[in-house]
Amino acid sequence: MDLDLAAVRAFVAVVEERSFGGAADRLGISQQAVSKRVAKLEDRLGTPLVVRGRAGAEPTAAGHAQLASARALVGLADRMTALAGDRLRTLRVDVHHTWLASIDLVRGFHETAPDAELGIVSSGGLATGLSALVAGDTDALFGRATGLPDGVRRVPALLEPLHVVVRRDHRFAGHTRLSPGALAGTTAWMPSIEADSEWAWFYRAMGHDFGIDYDTSGPDFGLEGLIERIASEPSRYTFAGAGTRLPAHPDVVRVPLADPAPVYPWSLMWHERNRHPALPPLIAHIEDAYAPWDPTRFWLPAGDRAAFPSARTARTATSPHTPPQPNRANACAPSHEPRLPPR
Hints:
The protein has helices at about 5-15, 20-25, 30-45, 60-85, 100-110, 125-135, 200-210, 220-230, 280-290, and strands at about 50-55, 55-60, 90-95, 120, 140-145, 150-165, 185-190, 215, 235-240, 250-255, 260-270, 300. The chain is of the alpha/beta class. Residues about 310-343 have low confidence and may be disordered. The protein has three domains: about 5-65, Orthogonal Bundle (Arc Repressor Mutant, subunit A), CATH 1.10.10.10; about 70-160 and about 265-290 and about 300-305, Periplasmic binding protein-like II (D-Maltodextrin-Binding Protein, domain 2, 3-Layer(aba) Sandwich), CATH 3.40.190; about 160-260, D-Maltodextrin-Binding Protein, domain 2 (3-Layer(aba) Sandwich). Strands 3, 4, 5, 6, 9, 10, 11 and 12 form an eight-stranded mixed beta sheet that branches. A two-stranded antiparallel sheet has the order 1-2. A two-stranded parallel sheet has the order 7-8. The relative contact order is 0.14. Helix 1 packs across helix 3, helix 1 packs across helix 4 and helix 5 packs across helix 9. The protein is globular, with a radius of gyration of 20 Å.
């Protein structure tokens, strides 16, 4: 069965932009053309791939199942174009997902370097993002850096505080801020936790240190499905980063965690052989914007602390054009993180 690459690209753009209009702007075509291309792909595969909701376009269950393959097809096509010589015009930056805090880091860089041509990629995590980085399909990658392969380097980018997300009448909702110790003995609903993913290790460490259990039952229907479920069940709660753009809902509120505030450790990663001219300015911008870890206010997993300098530790400038320092490229974590005892 032959597939139309333009239709596959339209499907990926709609999911990543969460709207047909945003996909149209990204692809430089009309919204009607995007709709026709997605409909063509759905007809070819014999199943709906995208549904429109109050918070935007979301993939169906079949769409979720096809998304990784669709991204792979688009990535291979883009790599062929790159090999033809077009690639240096665009710095391809993997932000994990466009609704996460990482997109604001890229937007901040764009404001300081408006002439830099940027291409935003959403790999969904290290499992696919690192292989694309090593292969040269992307130039930079944001995420929690762990188990980095040889040649991949990183700098600390952001320590993002976490929020508790609850229904308005939940017992946590009346707080202006909440200590993670107050969550001891409770169970957070986290359907997006994938076994052995970089964020699963983070939340496992957090649960171990603060006595929090997790319900990872799904399926994961995206952010809109997550918020609808929280709104419908007064006993449930989940976590989200302070910079995560959650769909607005009148019955759902966010409560910041504090004393200490658990922070998700974002790094910027790249391959040391990459010589894209816009990469050093991006790295320098991220290093300049990084706010050091304050251990009196924030909690980090023990395995991440060495890679995130505190206010009492001087930053070390890092560039893809400077010689690599021993044990520094992969300082964020060992290749095999410690197994924490299940709760």
